[in-house]
Design the sequence.
């Protein structure tokens, strides 16, 4: 599912894995909506780590490979290794997608607060030179 091509056109063919790899690059309302949609997509996959006690370093290593390797390289892995790699990737991606949403929202709120403080809060009384 993550590896299969989901968007086919003459110019590009992307998989869900490729689409989820790309995080937000700007701070805007549109970027916030896309980041939330990305997080919802990751959560809807419903992938949770089993209680097997996998070391965190091994999880991050598998997730890094899935994040940087071509989809064709991931698809050529043996089925057990491919499944472990994709589960580790989604596990780490869920945390980073949550962080992306929070960072964009924080930046938007800080930007709006700065803008509000640069605008007078109360209108000046007529005839006032203050």
Sequence:
């Amino acid at each position: 599912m993550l590896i299969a091509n989901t968007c086919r056109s003459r110019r590009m063919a992307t998989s869900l894995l490729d689409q989820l790899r790309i995080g937000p690059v700007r701070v805007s309302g549109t970027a916030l909506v896309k980041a939330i949609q990305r997080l919802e997509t990751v959560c809807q996959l419903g992938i949770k780590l089993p209680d097997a006690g996998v070391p965190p370093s091994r999880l991050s290593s598998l997730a890094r490979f899935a994040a940087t390797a071509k989809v064709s390289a991931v698809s050529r892995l043996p089925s057990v290794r491919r499944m472990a790699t994709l589960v580790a990737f989604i596990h780490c991606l869920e945390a980073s997608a949550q962080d992306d949403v929070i960072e964009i929202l924080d930046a938007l709120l800080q930007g709006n607060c700065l803008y509000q403080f640069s605008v007078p809060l109360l209108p000046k009384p007529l005839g006032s030179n203050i």
Observations:
- Residues 50 and 64 are 19 Å apart (CA to CA).
- The beta strands are 5-8, 13-15.
- The longest strand covers residues 5-8.
